[in-house]
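Reminder to self: C-alpha coordinates first, then the designed residues, so the page reads top to bottom the way the pipeline ran.
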Protein backbone atom coordinates (compact mmCIF):
# COMPACT_ATOMS: atom_id res chain seq x y z
CA UNK A 1 0.00 0.00 0.00
CA UNK A 2 1.34 3.44 -0.96
CA UNK A 3 1.86 5.96 1.80
CA UNK A 4 0.69 9.55 1.46
CA UNK A 5 3.70 11.77 2.08
CA UNK A 6 1.74 15.02 1.87
CA UNK A 7 1.86 15.52 5.63
CA UNK A 8 5.66 15.46 5.52
CA UNK A 9 5.66 18.94 4.00
CA UNK A 10 5.28 22.20 5.95
CA UNK A 11 1.74 23.53 6.47
CA UNK A 12 2.47 26.54 4.26
CA UNK A 13 3.27 24.29 1.30
CA UNK A 14 0.23 22.10 1.97
CA UNK A 15 -1.97 25.21 2.05
CA UNK A 16 -0.65 26.51 -1.28
CA UNK A 17 -1.05 23.06 -2.79
CA UNK A 18 -4.68 22.85 -1.66
CA UNK A 19 -5.46 26.27 -3.14
CA UNK A 20 -3.67 25.39 -6.37
CA UNK A 21 -5.78 22.25 -6.63
CA UNK A 22 -8.93 24.35 -6.22
CA UNK A 23 -7.78 26.59 -9.06
CA UNK A 24 -6.61 23.71 -11.26
CA UNK A 25 -9.78 23.54 -13.35
CA UNK A 26 -10.71 26.39 -15.71
CA UNK A 27 -14.39 26.03 -14.78
CA UNK A 28 -13.64 26.90 -11.15
CA UNK A 29 -11.74 30.02 -12.14
CA UNK A 30 -14.60 31.01 -14.46
CA UNK A 31 -17.11 30.44 -11.65
CA UNK A 32 -15.06 32.65 -9.32
CA UNK A 33 -15.02 35.37 -11.98
CA UNK A 34 -18.81 35.16 -12.40
CA UNK A 35 -19.34 35.34 -8.64
CA UNK A 36 -16.96 38.30 -8.32
CA UNK A 37 -18.79 40.22 -11.05
CA UNK A 38 -22.24 39.51 -9.66
CA UNK A 39 -21.40 39.71 -5.93
CA UNK A 40 -23.93 36.91 -5.29
CA UNK A 41 -25.27 34.43 -7.75
CA UNK A 42 -27.87 31.70 -8.05
CA UNK A 43 -26.47 28.46 -9.47
CA UNK A 44 -28.87 28.58 -12.41
CA UNK A 45 -27.44 31.91 -13.52
CA UNK A 46 -23.94 30.45 -13.65
CA UNK A 47 -25.22 27.64 -15.87
CA UNK A 48 -26.68 30.23 -18.25
CA UNK A 49 -23.32 32.02 -18.51
CA UNK A 50 -20.88 29.09 -18.70
CA UNK A 51 -20.89 26.28 -21.27
CA UNK A 52 -21.40 23.64 -18.58
CA UNK A 53 -24.22 21.40 -17.44
CA UNK A 54 -25.99 22.21 -14.19
CA UNK A 55 -24.58 19.09 -12.53
CA UNK A 56 -21.03 20.07 -13.54
CA UNK A 57 -21.44 23.59 -12.17
CA UNK A 58 -22.85 22.16 -8.94
CA UNK A 59 -19.89 19.81 -8.56
CA UNK A 60 -17.38 22.63 -9.06
CA UNK A 61 -19.27 24.85 -6.62
CA UNK A 62 -19.19 21.99 -4.12
CA UNK A 63 -15.39 21.78 -4.47
CA UNK A 64 -14.96 25.55 -4.13
CA UNK A 65 -17.21 25.59 -1.08
CA UNK A 66 -15.39 22.65 0.55
CA UNK A 67 -12.11 24.49 -0.08
CA UNK A 68 -13.45 27.62 1.59
CA UNK A 69 -13.32 29.95 -1.41
CA UNK A 70 -17.10 30.07 -1.82
CA UNK A 71 -19.96 30.44 0.65
CA UNK A 72 -23.42 29.23 -0.19
CA UNK A 73 -26.92 29.02 1.19
CA UNK A 74 -29.89 26.99 0.08
CA UNK A 75 -33.00 29.13 -0.38
CA UNK A 76 -35.96 26.94 -1.25
CA UNK A 77 -35.22 25.23 -4.53
CA UNK A 78 -32.25 27.42 -5.42
CA UNK A 79 -28.82 27.98 -3.96
CA UNK A 80 -27.12 31.34 -3.58
CA UNK A 81 -23.32 31.48 -3.72
CA UNK A 82 -20.72 34.19 -3.18
CA UNK A 83 -16.96 34.40 -2.80
CA UNK A 84 -15.58 34.07 0.71
CA UNK A 85 -13.35 37.14 0.42
CA UNK A 86 -11.52 36.50 3.69
CA UNK A 87 -10.37 33.07 2.52
CA UNK A 88 -9.72 34.43 -0.97
CA UNK A 89 -7.32 36.98 0.55
CA UNK A 90 -5.64 34.20 2.53
CA UNK A 91 -5.18 32.23 -0.69
CA UNK A 92 -3.76 35.24 -2.50
CA UNK A 93 -1.29 35.90 0.30
CA UNK A 94 -0.19 32.26 0.49
CA UNK A 95 0.31 32.00 -3.28
CA UNK A 96 2.22 35.29 -3.51
CA UNK A 97 4.43 34.45 -0.53
CA UNK A 98 5.34 31.08 -2.04
CA UNK A 99 6.05 32.56 -5.47
CA UNK A 100 8.21 35.28 -3.93
CA UNK A 101 10.15 32.70 -1.92
CA UNK A 102 10.82 30.66 -5.05
CA UNK A 103 11.91 33.81 -6.92
CA UNK A 104 14.40 34.61 -4.14
CA UNK A 105 16.23 31.38 -4.91
CA UNK A 106 16.38 32.37 -8.58
CA UNK A 107 18.09 35.61 -7.63
CA UNK A 108 20.57 33.82 -5.36
CA UNK A 109 21.48 31.00 -7.75
CA UNK A 110 21.30 32.70 -11.13
CA UNK A 111 20.23 30.61 -14.08
CA UNK A 112 20.76 26.87 -14.47
CA UNK A 113 20.19 26.72 -18.23
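Designed residues (113 positions):
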Amino acid sequence: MALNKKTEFPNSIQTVSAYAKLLSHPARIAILEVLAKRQTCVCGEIVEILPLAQSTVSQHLKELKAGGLVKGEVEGTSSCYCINWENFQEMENALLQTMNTIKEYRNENGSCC
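The helical segments are 11-22, 26-38, 43-49, 54-66, 85-109.
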